[in-house]
């Protein structure tokens, strides 16, 4: 489980970089973020809460 948490933390950091490099001023722009296999999931999101999901299998083999 910690392995998955590390990837989530890395992805959050990458989202901050995405926001800084693009000088994001509108939350709607975050929907364009896609990295570490994460993408915006409109079905699970609400206007106040954006959800990003991945199908990537982070388990060690």
Entry keywords:
single chain; 61 residues; alpha+beta; 1 helix; YaaA
How would you explain this protein's 3D organization?
The chain is an alpha+beta fold. It has one domain. The chain is 33% helix and 11% strand. It has one helix and three strands, in the order H-E-E-E. The protein has one helix at residues 2-21, and strands spanning 34-35, 38-40, 52-53. It has a three-stranded antiparallel beta sheet with strand order 1-2-3, covered by helices on one side. Strand 1 (34-35) and strand 2 (38-40) form a beta hairpin. The longest helix is centred in the first third of the chain and has 20 residues, at 2-21. It is globular. The two termini are 14 Å apart. The relative contact order is 0.18.
Please give the structural blueprint.
Blueprint: H1 2-21, E1 34-35, E2 38-40, E3 52-53
Antiparallel strand pairs: 1-2, 2-3
Average of the residue pLDDT scores:
86
Radius of gyration: 12 Å
Low-confidence stretches: none
Q: What is the element string, with H for helices and E for strands?
A: HEEE
Q: How would you name the oligomeric state of the polypeptide chains in this document?
A: single chain
- Percent strand equals 5-15%
- How are the strands of the biggest sheet laid out side by side? 1-2-3
**Whole-Å distance between the termini?**
14 Å
The beta-strand count equals 3
Characterize the biggest β-sheet. 3 strands, antiparallel
Provide the helix percentage.
25-40%
Q: How many H/I helical runs?
A: 1
Give the helix/strand class.
alpha+beta
Principal-axis shape equals globular
Number of self-contained structural domains = 1
